[in-house]
Fold this protein.
Amino acid sequence: MRAGWLVVVLGGCLHSNELICDDGSICAPDSTCLPSGGCRAASCGDGVLDGRDGEECDDGNALDHDGCSSVCRAERLRWTHVDGADIPPRLDATAAWDPDRGRGLLIGGFITGADVVDAWSWTGAGWEMVPPPSPIVEGGALAWDGNGALVFTGGTTGNNVFQDQCWLWTGAWQACASPLPEITEEHAMAQDPAGGVISTGGLTGPPTGVMLSPFTFRRDPTGTWTPLPDGASVFKLAAVLDARAGRVVRTGGTWFGGAQMTQALGASGWETWAPEMNRQPIAIAYDPNRGRITTIAGGEFTAPGESSHTTFQVIELVVDSKNGNLWVPVDPQPKSAPDPSRQTGQAFYDSLRHEFVLVGGVDEMNNFLGDTWVLSWDSDSPVEKCDGTDNDGDGRIGCDDDDCWPRCFPRNPPNTPKIPTDPHCGDGVCNPALEDAALCPSDC
């Protein structure tokens, strides 16, 4: 960006010393010109909103897509329908993000009277079919294990036959050394902060017959399942790793019409962590840029035995040591959004594109859905491309820019420890799914 300095002298005294940008913007001496026009305050990122040079917000960091851009422009939630990204409609699929391969994975589900026997890989622009595990099921669970694989467990086939299965996805399927200790469906799984996955709740099957599951198990990095203290019996719940807090959180679900508290897994078992999330089904993901758990609320229970109504609303879990942890509706809600009668679907956070991906579900008429929507925090200012340029104008390039963490340190979100043994830019191995010569010349 070409720029010049303007010295204005009035009455023999220096009046100002200002920077003139190509678009005509006149900026303070200690600010810089933005590629899109306008100025970036030198104080942007100091956590103090001073309003200089168009500063609209200041959250104390240089990240985009967290509500305040890296040049201190306010960001708003935006829903976008992904044209041409429909898949066969379904409910009760399972989905998760694979950071090492920069892809999402979705498996199975059902439509009235039949299983949907397929699996799909999310590319960021649409879905590509991939081989499914066998047998394909509804009500299974899928989670990243922090060590290079997605873990898929449980579920039932269309004739309600529980499946005693466990698979690993590393770009291809391989069987786990051992399945879940209890045959389970409609359960939830999440990455364990210590490595491996946590499985909790659901319905258990043979040999005792179908019953609500109080069980929680941990699969460690060696593939060994270990029982943990039981929790409240609940199914159709959701679980996620809150990476900043370093704890697995579970919420939502039902026990024949009852609401469930939000709980975190501690040393002594499940502990109440926030008020109830009176919803099922519920789409959930951890937003690493904001450091919050995000949900898209689904059917809300009114009273036992009564039908639920739909609340399609974006809600975040705010971790607050002073006021207590709270579920807070995001305000304002996006103006353009999926049908508000939609009962969610499956979701994950696409860290490469910094967006929440939602697919599937049903509407209020029980029509099954297969359309795909993405939800992101955006402003009108340019975003970082991680291509060797400073496209967002924040003064940082490549892996020195925090916006490039999903490609440079894919397993280590912002404000979490970087583990030297995890794959990263500079480890001497080029990951073609994430790295290239412009971003990481030492590897590629």
Notes: Confidence is low (pLDDT under 50) at residues 1-16. Helices lie at 405-408. The radius of gyration is 24 Å.
